[in-house]
Amino acid sequence: MPVDWSIQDVARLAGTTSRTLRHYDDVGLLRPSRIGSNGYRYYDERALVRLQRILMLRALGLGIPAIGEVLAGNTDDAHALAGHLDWLKQEKERIDRQIATVETTILTMEGGEQLMAENMFDGFDHTQYREEVEDRWGKDAYAKGDAWWRSMSATEKEEWQQRQKQLGADWIAAAKSGVAPDSAEAQELAQRQFDWLKGIPGTPGGGSTGPTKPYFLGLAEMYVADARFAANYGGIEGATFVRDAMTVFAEANL
Question: How far apart are CA 133 and CA 127, in angstroms?
Answer without folding.
Answer: 10
